Amino acid sequence: MQNNDQDIHAQPILIVDFGSQYTQLIARRVRECGVYCEIHPFDIDPQHIAEFNPAGVILSGGPESVTEGQTPRIADEIFALGVPVLGICYGMQAMASQLGGIVSASNKREFGHAQVEMVSPSKLLKSLGDGKGSANVWMSHGDKVSELPTGFICTGSSGSAPIAAMELAEKNFYGVQFHPEVTHTDGGDRLLLNFTKDICGCAGDWTAANIVEDAIAKVREQVGTDKVLLGLSGGVDSSVVAALLSKAIGDQLTCIFVDNGLLRKGERDEVELAFQNAIGEGELSPLNIITVAAEDEFLDKLAGVDDPEAKRKIIGGTFIDVFDREAQKLQDVNWLAQGTIYPDVIESAASKYGKAHVIKSHHNVGGLPERMTMQLVEPLRELFKDEVRKIGLHLGLPESLVHRHPFPGPGLGVRILGEVKKQYADVLREADKIFIDELRKADLYSKTSQAFTVYLPVKSVGVVGDARRYEHVIALRAVETIDFMTARWAHLPYEFIELVSNRIINEISAVSRVVYDVSSKPPATIEWE
Question: How many CB atoms lie within 10 A of CB 233?
Fold first, then answer.
């Protein structure tokens, strides 16, 4: 457990972002080493660099070329900090160029797997690869370092990049042309562990237990004896916020659960049962949950609407109305809790040192009325989704809730193509339950990143028994992804798809046909609307 005098943010790693698609992955890997880190843009104010006081710096990759004049550069203050610096891909090239080396265009772009040979003893590379002087790594670059800066030595070489790794050991400056943060690089995780702990000297105090203890202390200091309100959706983020606040402030927390008629089957019961079990095991205090049955209100406003964006706005706006109406009934509530997580902060430029402070609207609130003058409490604001899941388990929430697949804010409203009707939602709920239950039985649920059913606004002829059936079509959708920015359709076994299809058609009379979506992202999106 965390020592009371210990600050788990005291030895942070600064990750300087040059626009790489892997920047957030670097941060996640550093956090997995037990080390706190933050991502900041390459043009971060030098004063803020000093204020952040990092134990080390990692320079990300990026899409630009240092051989061009107006592309991003490393702040001089980074090199003057006196702390270890690791440049990855573009970060290595920028380091080499700015410290007196030469970067030139490669004859051909190197993308994918490559073999790096160790050519000199290295403090950084000692844990990389097979221990026999070579490593299978992941490359993605069009330029290369062709001449080292003064004092640097080459420590690794590949076919397309003779200088694939370099270092100036006396100053702890390191560069690698490959990407240690991706799983395709053998030993990349050990390289980052070596950099953060052995080279930067970080203690590794960023653990689930310490994060929870730190968050609880901050919440108690922030809200004091005030009351806090939370919109509990049943999703991972809001559920973990509820558990954390329950642990921190007990009955000062009130949760509002809005049943909009567009939730998955048994959603409310599953959430309540999860918290009851955690309470029964002594992990959490009983929750004050106000459940609002608002199905009729939502469906009435959605009647006749088939445009996806219009549906989203109606669902979001109606949620605000219902949530605000219930909140007005409560007395002396000064704080609104939200499940904002670190990727939201990064993407909204709402970092501590960002140029603009933008507060992300709650994923179920979609923007609060100005008359709601409550202050925000966001205990997950520093965390990635995988960290949120870890502290959820630490707080006693069941794995079935913590590791459940993402669910869109508008719920089934964007999985019913066209107009939303109660009978459509009821059919979709049943079909979705069958699909998810069978995935769990076949041990396929955790092997897919997101799986769900879609209600299609077309009818198809079918024959069940001796009777013809002219009913709607259900689509099955399942994808595999790491970051949800790109995704591959899940290659589920044909026998499994057949089983699910037969169950849906035989058990739900309003369905005559089932199809499987084999579209990847891009060009398709994961959701259909």
Answer: 27
CB 1 within 8 A of CB 210: yes
Residue 283 a catalytic site member: no
Give the pLDDT of residue 111.
Answer: 72
pLDDT of 463 strictly over 80? no
**Catalytic-labelled residue, pool 33, 37, 89, 200:** 89
Token pair belonging to 473: 């079509």
Give catalytic status of residue 472 as yes or no: no
pLDDT of residue 441: 97
Separation of alpha carbons 19 and 63, rounded Å: 7
Comparing CA positions, the residue from 54, 79, 180 lying closest to residue 124 is 180
Give the contacts of 121 (CB within 8 A, at least 6 positions apart). 155
- Identify the band that residue 114 occupies on the pLDDT scale cut at 50, 70 and 90: confident
Q: Which of 38, 40, 110, 179 is catalytic?
A: 179
Give yes or no for a cis peptide into 286 (omega within 30° of 0). no
| Mean pLDDT of the 486-510 span | 95
pTM here?
0.84
User: Measured between alpha carbons, how far is 74 from 93 in angstroms, rounded to an integer?
Assistant: 10
Could you confirm whether 471 is annotated as catalytic? no
On whether the CB atoms of residues 477 and 528 are closer than 8 A, the answer is: yes
Asked if pLDDT for residue 369 goes beyond 60, the answer is no
3-state secondary structure 266-299: CHHHHHHHHHHHHHHCCCCCCCEEEEEECHHHHH
For residue 478, the SS3 value is: strand
Which residues have a Cβ under 8 Å from the Cβ of 180 and sit 6 or more positions away?
A: 29, 88, 128, 137, 187, 188, 189, 191, 192
- Cα 526 versus chain centre, distance: 15
**CB neighbour burial string for 271-307, b if at least 16 within 10 angstroms, e if fewer:** bbebbeebeeeebbbebbbeeeebbebbbebbeebee
Q: Which one of the listed residues 110, 167, 181, 438 is annotated catalytic?
A: 181
Angle between helices 295-302 and 308-327 (to 10 degrees): 150
Of 102-111, 330-339, 363-372, 424-433, highest mean pLDDT: 424-433
Is residue 296 pLDDT above 90, yes or no? yes
Q: Which domains does the chain have, with CATH numbers?
A: 13-199 (3.40.50.880), 208-402 (3.40.50.620), 422-516 (3.30.300.10)
